[in-house]
Amino acid sequence: MSEAHGESHLPTYKRIILMLGGLTVVEFVISFWMHGQIPGVGTFPFMAGVLLLIGLAFWKAVLVARFFMHVKYDPGVLAFLAVTPLILAAPFLLLAGFDLVKGPNL
Q1: CB 3.0 to 4.6 Å from 49: which of 28, 32, 34, 91, for a disulfide?
Q2: Residues ≥6 apart with Cβ < 8 Å to 44
Q3: Over the stretch 32-44, which tens digit does the pLDDT of each residue have?
């Protein structure tokens, strides 16, 4: 495998894969903790857990997009186009979180 085919990027890819696996384990622990399935430990606050899980999922999505979809090497305009829907969706995610906690009658 020559350097042009990604041999020099292999350590970076391995590190990203380990980070994604570690973040997935953290997500599982938070999920079990939120549902009180860890013996000897109380439950994690539901809304805080949901927000934390959303943040971790966003972080994982950014890692995948930057390194495996090669957005890191694209011009800034393309990265802006990729991020714009996330920015536009943020208010809807916030409203969905309130709806989840308080119900439809805010």
Answers
A1: 34
A2: 30, 33, 34
A3: 998 888 888 888 8
Helix (H, G, I), strand (E, B) or coil at 95: helix
Q: Which residue in the block uniquely carries the two structure tokens 């292999």?
A: 10
pTM: 0.67
Q: Which of 98, 20, 9, 105 is nearest to 61 (CA)?
A: 20
Domain that residue 91 falls in: 3-102
Q: State the Cα–Cα distance between residues 1 and 106, nearest whole angstrom.
A: 59
Helix (H) or strand (E) segment spanning residue 30: helix 10-34
Tokens of 71: 């957005």
Which among 7, 23, 9 is positioned nearest to 73, based on CA atoms?
A: 9
Report whether 34 contacts 49 (CB < 8 A). Answer: yes
Number of domains the chain is built from? 1
